[in-house]
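A quick aside before the break. I want you to see a complete sequence-to-structure record at least once, exactly as it would be stored in a machine-readable document. Don't worry about memorizing anything.
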Amino acid sequence: MLSAFSFITSATGFDLLNLTLNTAPLCHLGCGMNLKATILPRTSCCALLIAAVHVPGCRAVTNISLMLSALPALKYRSNRIIVATYSAFCCAKAVTDDMVSKKAISFFTTFVCTNVKGESSIKKCRIAIYLYKNTTFSTMKIICIGRNYADHAKELKNDLPTEPVIFMKPKSALLLADKPLYYPEFTDDLHFECEVVVKISKNGKFIQEKFANKYYNEVSLGIDFTARDVQERQKKKGLPWEIAKAFDGSAAIGTFKPITEDMNVNDLDFQFKQNGELKQDGHTRDMIFNINNIVAYVSKFFTLNIGDLIYTGTPAGVGPVTVQDKLEGYMFGEKLLEVDVR
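That is the input. The structure line, written in tokens, reads:
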């Protein structure tokens, strides 16, 4: 996120990082009560947007919608302040995800388009919009669990693990919804592995298993694409196999669904189809290590951050993909994942 601060500063001439640090006490002041935007200095509004998501224990993010609704009353007519505020809002929205209402962003977008004049300022606003749309996963980690279904471990002739098997992928591995996968030229045996994926919603380290459910709030399906021939070659040499698992586009992700109070993540059914044919029929109750256990275990080694994704392992039925394949994942009775292989 520091790079985002630097980017905004260079784009707008507004030192948001320094401003945020200097106004951070306002966030603590706002905790537990309704801050009225009209009593804040004009420049504090944009700083509060970012500080609200960066100051530990701060709940001032709940005041963002209030501040946005009060912007017209503050008579923001300085293009630089408007652009900086909008940029800050974009960063805050990317970090807080669904915590900021769609109504608020719709309102503020309209406000910016109405009040920002001049080609240069409009260009900066477009940059801010681009930043918002492309930073949701900018700082995330992709954490994967291997051999978490007994039948899958057996089909690959692997021993059953006594603790979660962890490997990771870089953010460049993420293949967003509706994006095709281009068959990698370095493999002749690319396999699909469909998995339940949870999104981390709260920063945490050394998380106790009994509290683990408080650290994720969305679930989806993903595909851990694996260059099986490359993986086997690396295994025989006793070498790491990131090149078989962590290449660009190897972590397909579907549409996320909120985890409701009546949803049992340890009793989810999901299906994976290849060209309309059922290939994997999974059940989270068959996991060797359930999701809460995984979250607690992973947090012993890595700090979990908002936006991190955990791929929880694949059931039996993995197999090869070919060019022109259509891959689909279903959960909750609806299609959450679709990938075309080209």
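Two observations worth writing down. The longest strand covers residues 216-224. The chain has twelve helices and 15 strands. We'll return to this after the break.
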